[in-house]
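Pipeline run #58 for the internal structure catalog. This entry was flagged by the ingest filter as a single-chain record with no existing model, so it goes straight to prediction. Upstream metadata was stripped on purpose; only the residue string is passed forward. Reviewer on rotation: M.T. Logging verbosity set to normal.
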Amino acid sequence: MKRAVITGSTGMLGISLINVLLAEGYEVIAVARPGSARIGNLPSDDRITVAECDVKSISDLPSILSSKGIDKADLFFHFAWDGTHGDSRNNMDVQIDNIRSSLEAVRAASKLGCEVFLGAGSQAEFGRVKDGVKLSADLPCRPENGYGIGKLCACDMTRIEARKLGIKHIWVRILSTYGPFDGAHTMVMSGIGTMLKGQKASYTKGEQMWDYLYCKDAARAFYLAATKGRPSSVYMVGSGKVRPLADYIRAIRDAIDPSLDIGFGEVDYYPGQVMYLCADISALTEDTGFVPEYDFETGIKETVEWYKNEYGS
C-alpha cells in the first residue's frame, strides 16, 4: 500500500484530499499542529496516522514518523502556511518563516523517500491582472503583498531544492475554493452562517467575475497533478469558468431560504478590488484529465447541509 503525507491536513482542502487518497488506496500521514482542536475534524479511518508537528519544526517529521515505525512515503503534499489572512499577509517575518518551512518540507520528503512533492500556491502570486485575462503558468507574476511574494518565492525555491534532491516537483496555484470545514471568515461560510439565522447578509454590488471550485474537485485536482502531472509544472486549480459574485451569493441564499433579502451594495469595494479572477485549467486537463464534476449549486447544497449538521440551523 502506498503512503502520502499531508501538512495542513486539518483544513478544508487537507481533509478533502485525505478522502481522495483513502479512496485511491493510500495510507495517509496527517501532519497537524500539536494539540490542535481541529484534529477531531479528520476522518475516522485506521489508515490515517496523525503526526503532531508544527510547520516551523517540519524537519523533525521524519524522526517523529520513525518513532511510529514509519520510514517511507510516496507523495508529499505541503499545505501548511501561517499568515494567510488580514494584516498577517504582510507580516514579512511570518512569510519568510513559511518559505524556510517549505524548504524543510522538501528535505523531509526526501528523507522519507517520497517521489513527488506538491506545494500549495495561490492566485496571490500573480497580483492583479487585466479583466478578462485567465490565470495561467505563462502569465507574469507580480504579487502585491507579502503572502503572494512568499508563495512565489516558495514555489521557485522548493522547485530548485526538489531538483537537487531528485524529487518530482509540482506547484498548484489555487483560486477560490469552498466547502465543508472552510474557515468562518470566508464569503461563502460567513454568508451561510448569517442566512441560516434568517438575517440579511450585506455585500458589495457583486459585480466581480469570479471562479469558485468545490473542495472535492480541488482535492481530485491535487491528486491528479501529483500522480499524472509533468515534473516542474505549475498548474492552476479552479473551475475555469466565471460568474458574477452576485450569482454565487444568490445560490447560497436559494439553498437556504429563497425569500431572504440580500444587501447588495451595502459594502464598498476595497481599494484595489480584483474584479476578474478565472483559472486557465487547460494544462491541468491536458496533462492529467482533470475536469470539475460539481457545479456551484450542487456543491453549495452539500456545504449548507454540512454546516447545519456541524453548527445547527
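catalog note: Residues 92-111 form the longest helix (20 residues).
catalog note: The longest strand covers residues 116-122.
status: ready for reviewer M.T.
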